[in-house]
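Example 485.
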Amino acid sequence: MSEKPDILLINPFSWIRDGSPAYLPYGVLYLAGYLRGKGIKVDIFDANTDPTDPLEVVARNRPLALGLSVLTGPVINEALKISRAAKSRFKDIKIIWGGLHPTLFPKYVLGEDSVDFIIQAEGENALFRLMDALLKSREDPSVRNLGYKDKGNIFINPVEDSLIDLNLSPMPAWDLVDMPKYIANRFFASRVLTMNTSRGCPFKCAFCFNQGLPYQRWRSLNAGNIFKQLMRLKDNYGINGIQFYEDSFDTDKNRVKEFCNLMISSEAKVNWSHFSNIIYCDEAMLRLEKAANCKYVEYGVESGSDRILQLINKRQDVAQIKEAFQVCKRVGIKSAALFMIGYPSETKEELKETIDLVEGLPAHILISTIYRPYPGTPLYDYCAKNKNFFVPATLEAQGEFYRFSHMKDGACNMSFVSTEYLLKLQRSFYAKFAIKEAILCLKEFNFGLIIYYLKRQMKPKALCYTIKSLFNRLSLRSRDRVVNE
Ligand code: B12
Ligand code: SF4
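Predicted structure in complex with iron/sulfur cluster:
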């Protein structure tokens, strides 16, 4: 850290895969770039790459404020630990929470003693205005998106409808995090970083937080700016792959076309991948993407049951899903199928339809998660009404409840099948995923990645999980065969 920052943005420990974090924390990176451009002194403490106690960093720098980035997951508990420790040691420090959790649960978060302010929704403008006021030792309760406390009462201001122009904003402050640690060896390139070039999503899936949040309308960097960011990463960090990690990369077809043409004409030699929607699948477009070095597309398949697809308001049916994966195969782009199990009211027969669908798809990667209700979504309301579901009452319990693959008791199982079956099924998908990935590495001659996977499997915990998954897979398969005979 060069000079004393006015605000220290904190990315609390959130997710590490095999010793290194895979996804850059674009929330704090964009915020830091923006604040810096407005003359606020800012630094980032990234707990995913730095094992130092964050309090030591605070003690050394004594910033006026800490800004914690918190989504709805176990990261809540990490953020709580930091906030409480910081507040008890440095009484005057202002603690601000931003990100999706305070956006969705403003009252719960402001109810926490150690938190002074929350900022909902898009953070740039509101955080700048709040910091500006704090630096001038005044209060500005009119800031849109702000939540605060006064004499024990909680106030939550309306959410701003006008959003910043991403094309006029500074680049993310990559220089403030340990970038080499984020460079990942993936099957489609050996030095991959993530990029985030759009916000919001035009779809309205019934389980997704995007529902009903007005600021979530889709907006993006233009093709020229995507290309500029990509080249900056290539020149500064020597990468040869980019994973566009955002809700809906290809909503604007012209943007993607222009970007592809830039990649083709510049001969940038960077492979890339992105998320997409089944209904965006278009053979001509994928061919252009392939010519521009796109190697891999991840689709939200979600379910193999048309009833469930309707229930979750996913604008696709099973026939369209099958066709999209065939198109990828024809074009020669690798594909991933992302799907969930354990939807409210889902039956064993419907789960079987999902198994049949995803296992029959020519997808290279399968990623399954177990459904969890997020407040603010229609499916959450459905669970509250039909399953008597309510959000855990404390922040700690929320962090625990929204843990990935965590399902210790039946309390959060919204489906009509047993929790045991869901967990077994998920493990069995993991086994299939591991096998598919191993085959892919062999086919691609990616020996670096093969060695890396072998090393990973040597760890007792990982080995146990994989063996258990394989057994689960075999036992579920033989049980299904018996049932079907
Ligand atoms: C990259 C990513 C991850 C990464 C990194 C997360 C991170 N710290 O950035 C990792 C892999 C860690 C991750 C994990 C999980 N993720 Co995730 N992830 C994403 C993804 C695809 C992109 C995030 C991103 O870069 N956005 C772009 C930036 C610019 O936006 P942003 O982060 O929201 O930041 C803006 C504002 O929120 C705000 N803000 C953010 N931080 C701060 C801090 C302060 C102080 C202030 C004032 C403002 C502020 O200002 C920013 C700029 O405007 C999103 C999809 C999405 N739409 O965002 C899902 C998403 C955030 N993830 C989601 C989920 C469910 C998870 C998991 C719970 C999944 C799981 N079951 O394990 C885990 C939880 C991990 C944990 N330990 O708690 C959901 C969140 C739902 C929710 N209610 O929170 C999303 C929205 C996906 C979805 N469509 O459902 N995720
Ligand atoms: S397409 Fe993805 S990000 Fe968009 S609403 Fe559906 S689940 Fe959410």
